[in-house]
Each structure stands twice: as structure tokens, then as C-alpha cells.
Amino acid sequence: MLRQRFIMLMIIAGCTLVLSSCTGNYKIDGVVETMGYEGRELSLVEFLPFRITRIDSCMVKGGRFQMKGKADTTRLVFLCKDNRPIIPVYIEKGHAKISLLPTEMTVSGTPQNDLFYSFLKKKIEFDNRYEDMSQKRMSMIRSGAGFDNLGMDAIQDSLRIIVDECEEMICSFMAENYEEPAAVGVFMMLSGDPSNEMPRYLRKILDAAPEEFLSQSFVSGYIDRMGYQRH
Questions:
Q1: Same domain flag for 128 and 218
Q2: What separation, in Å, do the N-terminal and C-terminal C-alpha atoms of the chain show?
Q3: Has this prediction a pTM greater than 0.70?
Q4: Please, what sign has the CA dihedral across residues 135, 141, 142, 148?
């Protein structure tokens, strides 16, 4: 769900990131164990304001694919099939590995991809815990056990603890990685809610952020839209 929301946000916003320079070459090796990919073309696409740029492309053969080229800057792009985004990828110097599996889709092997997907893995774990507890709450309500205030209070306390722990993880990650391009990608993903109310953890992130992070095009656009002012 997070990955899908992030993809839609990038396409709708059409934003570009000011990322670090990294003169060198990139290489991507991919493994596909999902139906519908064999013999199909995959491409790396960059979504910029008013422009969509195809960076590289290849065919899937025997469940594998490979791309390589110059990496003059660290760029956030998307791996696409039939012009449809599948998964975000940082093009950067080094050898990245993409896994398209029935259970998960990940990118690893280079600094920004490792950073971004390590965060995503932790966030998904919290989301799954919250969903499991929410399902337990609904089961109690359907069975009539929801009228047991003690049991329902325990569930509500557990949900609040999960939310608090998740927000603490998010803020800690951002505090440690403000200078990394992956941090801007994470912020884009987290701020994809169209609500006009800024979540408390995003305000905390912005309150503690250095000016360089706040000046990133997407971050500054979000600040303007939300009317945020640092206290």
C-alpha cells in the first residue's frame, strides 16, 4: 500500500529532487518470480515536471533482466512495465539488485536503495502490526466482546503504542538521514495524504530539519501547501 501511494504521489506531483552528484556507472540485475513479466520490456523512467524521461530499458528473459549506464547524479526513478510504474529505484553509482517476487518487491545493493527499502521494511512491519490489532478489534466487536470495556481498552492501548512506536521510528530515521537523498523520498511517501492537516510526526520532522532539507523542491512545496512555519 505504501509503495502504491508513493508511486501515485510521484506521478501526480511530477516532482524532481535535487540529489547528490556521483560520477560513475550503475548496474542493475533483476530477478522476476511473478507471472506476466517473461518476454516483456521493463524500463527505468524519471517523472519530472511536464516531462517523462525513459532512462533505460531491457527485456525479461528467463526470469532475469539487466540494465547499466552512466550515473552522473543520484536520481529517483521508477521501474516500469508497459509504461506503468512498479517500484521506485535510485539510480546511483554501484551494483543494485531488484527482486520482483510474489510476496515483495525490493531494491538493494547501493546506499540509497538500501536506506530507502530498509525504512520501508520497518514501516510495513508496523503497518502489519496495526492491521492485525485492528482486525482483532473488529472481531471482538462482531462477536459482542467489544462490549467488554477492559478488553476493548487493552486493544486501544495496543493500537496507540504501535502508532507511537512507528512515529518514533520515522522521526529517528529522518534525524539520522536528513542529508541523504533517500530521506526526501521517504518524506514524499509519508506526506502523500491529501488531508489539509499536517500529522504531528511530519511537523516534528520539519521542526528539526536542516535548511538544506527544507529547500528541497518537494519539501518546500509541501511546506507552502500546508502553511507550515518553524517555531
A1: yes
A2: 33
A3: yes
A4: positive
